Write the structure tokens for this entry.
Amino acid sequence: MKYISIIVGILMGLTIDLNAQIVLQSQLPSPGVFSKAQLWNISIMNSNSQQMNVRLVVTISDLQSNQLVLSGTSRFFLINQGAVLLTQNQLSPISYQTVNANYPVDPQPDGFLPVGIFNICYTLYWQNNDGLETVAEQCETLEVEPLSPPQLILPENEDNIEEEHPFFTWTAPMSTTLISGLRYDWKMVEVLPTQSASDAIQFNVPVWIQRSLPGNSFQYPLSLPKLDSSKLYAWQVTALNNLMPVSHSEIWLFKISRNTEIPGRRKGTYAVLKKNMGGHAVLLDGDIQFVFTNDQNNTNASILLFEIKNGKRQALLSSPIQLPLTQGSNYLRIPLSSINGIRKKQDYILELDDLGKKYYLKFQLTQSK
């Protein structure tokens, strides 16, 4: 019995030593979009002098719920002493088992992984005379992101709007087929004078948060107090996959500009100029009316108009229009009757030059002059 105990002890010591002599190291990239093939980019360091017949098993589980999502098993392969870098091609054929219907998994060998935050575990099994023995394990967290985050639409960035209970819209993230249970968290905060938009979203108490929205639009509730025209607001949308955040939109800013009677302002809608030519066209139902803040004490503004054709600008005016300015807010108007060739349902760009600084208004007419 004494000799048997000694032999068992020696064998146990060999097994423990064997485990310590094999090291797994995955080669997963930083957070992004992942295919199943990338899971099998792994290095194995074998310090044992003997050749070993092994197989690799990968399991993917939800980080929050710990539910198993997907598992994959390689074929048996041989490793010698030293380091080896392996890929899917060297480990194929690989058999997969999808075990969670809440996560859509692409069935193709090179298909994408579902979007979410997962725990990835690698287990290396050695085929010895007594069966399979675990000789190495390694686990890490993997964040799989959609191809693109939600894109904000309205209100546009740095816009001035009149609605005191605004309506917000955005696009879904790309690769929605890889997201199950897609929902959105919507958040709005006040931005203090010394803050950036990102700091405000991160640190300020929200004006309002709406969680787990099923669609890509939301109206600030009519039951809540009106937004304050003296304040600057920031908003952001977070896409959720099974209630786990997977992607954040940009952070956009807006202000409330109440439609009050102001000297020099005619009736009708006044558009707000922007610092770039992007975004959606503003619809105008009459003369071109816009508000411009003159903070450089300039005495006049130089205006050019362009028609957009095939993505290119074509000048509508032979010379700039000069409009007088006063300091502060100016409510400016260009009669349609003064512009030849302008027509409805066509994109135009107004360019205002304020002592070298350019401001733009992209617009369409809903009626001809």
Notes: The radius of gyration is 31 Å. The chain has three domains: 2-144, 151-256, 271-365. The CA atoms of residues 100 and 171 lie 27 Å apart. Residues 1-20, 260-265 have pLDDT under 50 and may be disordered.
